[in-house]
Amino acid sequence: MNTRSTVSSQLFFTTPQQRLALARQQFFDDGVRPTGLISEAVIQSWMRCIGARRNPRERVEFEPVTRSRVHSTLGRNRQFLEAAEAGLAELKLALAGTGCRALLIDATGVVVHTSQPAGGACEKILPTLDRVGVNVAEGLIGTSAPGIVTKTGRSCTVLGGEHFFETIQPLYCAAAPIRDASGGLAGVLDLSIESRTFGFDAESLVVQYATGIENRLLLAGAKDQLVVHFHTNATLLGTPFEALAGITEEGRVAWLNEVATRCFRSAVGDVESLFGVTLSHLTTLLRCTESTLTCLPSGIAVWVRASLHARDGTLVPVARAAPTVQPAPPESPSPAPVPAANPRLDVLNREYIDRTLAACGGNVSSAARTLGVSRGLIHRHLRGKR
Q1: DSSP string over 104-146
Q2: What is the rounded radius of gyration, in angstroms, for the C-alpha atoms of the chain?
Q3: What is the pTM for the complete model shown?
């Protein structure tokens, strides 16, 4: 009995490989959608590849990468790479004993960073794919986790035979999107391994690290913005799971990270419509050393702290202490007096530096250590006052 009839005759499957074999048979041989056998994301990718008149038996060729292409790729993605640097270093340590490679890919599908571990004897495909400048978009290598993410903006996992092209089926990959301040795709973080499946929940791990990189990217672009950090769980502030909102000097919400977006019905608006308080009230949090419990217009109580980011992107930290539990506000709090005009964020930034300098007796080095910024930032501030 041939493999096809064996697979077709089975009503139940004892292994994922058997289920995947039936899915490929139904789709490629019988023209039947294999719903329930593989994920919808993979089915849609297979359909896009067929629509582009690709043949699953084609051999995938990874184009050579020139030095000039590597240089232009790195230059075009410099800010993205800087924001990802710390997260990629942490991820490399986490993956040290797994045999997995971590790839950072830009929004067009081009690899901009790779962890480049020592290659195993079983690796034939990853060494050619895992290079800065290689394009892993769906249009070139067919179905893959990073290819699907660049198309859909959603995390996914593609295992072995779920890849469209047979020549790259030894790969197993999981990828997650990294978004920019406009909500668009800034890039993709991917974990890949060859000739064996993951020994852990790769998609959950890659989502966690992609979220951390996304948060750093958003904070790096928060020039002269008040950044509100909030969560229903105070212990998650300062982690990749915190909600973030960037507020302009005019009180407009410039951006929300993915966690914050889920807290509101609308991702746009001003401070009062989203947080139920004025900009002046939020700026008072800059003077707090602890997180504060506040109630959103939806009725959800969240712990909140704030940070201010200088024009050069440097963080001016003002809430370093760990959050402590404070009593919830009364049901009908007395309205706080509203100033005639909201203070500008750049003014608050300068005032805070001045207060810190005064507390340090004018010592620039001591003030820089207290603020967690460079001495150059303090010197530029002092020169600007002359």
Answers
A1: EEETTSBEEEE--PPPPTT-SSHHHHSSTT-B--HHHH-S-HH
A2: 25
A3: 0.77
